[in-house]
Amino acid sequence: MVQNEIKTPANDPVERVPGESYVPDAMWEEERIMAERASPARSLGAYDLRVSVKNLALPKPVTILATTTIRQAVALMQNGSFGSVLVVDAQGVLEGIFTERDMLLKISGHRLDWDKEIVGTFMTTNPETLGDTANLAFVLNLMTSGGFRHVPIVDEQKRPLAVVSIRDVVRYICSFFAKEVENLPPRPEILHPEIRESV
Amino acid sequence: MADKQPHDVDYLPAELAEEEKIMAERAAKPKLLGADSLRVPLKVLPLPKPVTVKASDSIEDAVAKMQAGHFGCVLAVHADGKLAGIFTERDVLFKLALKGKDWKKETVASFMTANPESLPFDASLAFALNMMTEGGYRHVPIVDKNGVAVAICSMKDVVRYITGFFEKEVKNLPPRPGLLHPEKPDGG
What we know:
The complex is a heterodimer of chains A (about 200) and B (about 190).
Chain A: H1 25-38, E1 44-45, E2 63-65, H2 70-80, E3 84-88, E4 94-99, H3 100-107, H4 119-122, E5 124-125, E6 130-131, H5 136-146, E7 150-154, E8 160-165, H6 166-174, H7 178-181, H8 188-191, H9 193-198
Parallel strand pairs in A: 2-3, 6-7
Antiparallel strand pairs in A: 3-4, 4-5, 7-8
Chain B: H1 14-28, E1 32-33, E2 52-54, H2 59-69, E3 73-77, E4 83-88, H3 89-96, H4 108-111, E5 113-114, H5 125-135, E6 139-143, E7 149-154, H6 155-163, H7 167-171
Parallel strand pairs in B: 2-3
Antiparallel strand pairs in B: 3-4, 4-5, 6-7
């Protein structure tokens, strides 16, 4: 029903030519890390914020109908470890977003019949969305000015294509600083022995 | 150059003044986020003080506190103020919803993430980012040398800090992406 048109490494794998020699993935990874260490430190510029959301390797959105009961929705989120789901109508058009925040603020501790109450009552209706021509700067704008942690990406009929979460944004930014962020020792004391003295 | 007084405050060579001007300009409008920007200690970020509950508080009380202040995350502390755990809206959804627990009797201690990874204020932003991307944490508690929770660093704080380097690119955008491309009018 809802087509995901955004290519990700997972759904669009690069095909290997049969018979062609290849380097095992582990060696590629090793070489990549060595190349990163050898290369000068990178920086994130304004240009990098103009990356299209299509290039962010976003996960497929999880969608449910507004008539789904709270019990069903919570069970689905628990089983899949989803912190948020998109709510669509029968045509797949986005109607709202239901997140763990709605769960905390509107449902937790309230006396509700979880088999009768539906998601449509508690979701955030008409969330801010972006088209798939938008770039990361727009996502950041919505997240910082609106305080949103999730921005649905929709097609021209407002059907969800993907969701950008603040986690995806942080991951993208960190990818520019693999040397600084990913290859850190487990504790800061190792890099800054002066901290250890004070602990 | 024995007559020069390097520590005399009245003495400021022209090159130095120029240097300072350039540095001030760079500080005011950085166009690039370099690796150095991630080496800043966490104390330079405007991090909020943590909202705390006692680990022995009931789930009902903790959730009421979170609802009242719209806090998605509270830190659970021992009686002496030392960090004991972190309790988030995620725990409410995944560990409490549908589980048939008595929220008046169950305590935060049973459902929080105990002894979460934390950082001192002197640790760099890179460490917080590392914990967020590698560990998958959305919040990193900041503790003092006694292990007392003094602040909390969320993904939102980090993204806001980094976005601050790109005021022009991010803050001054038109409301919709289409308005940036007038060659493709919306038909309106």
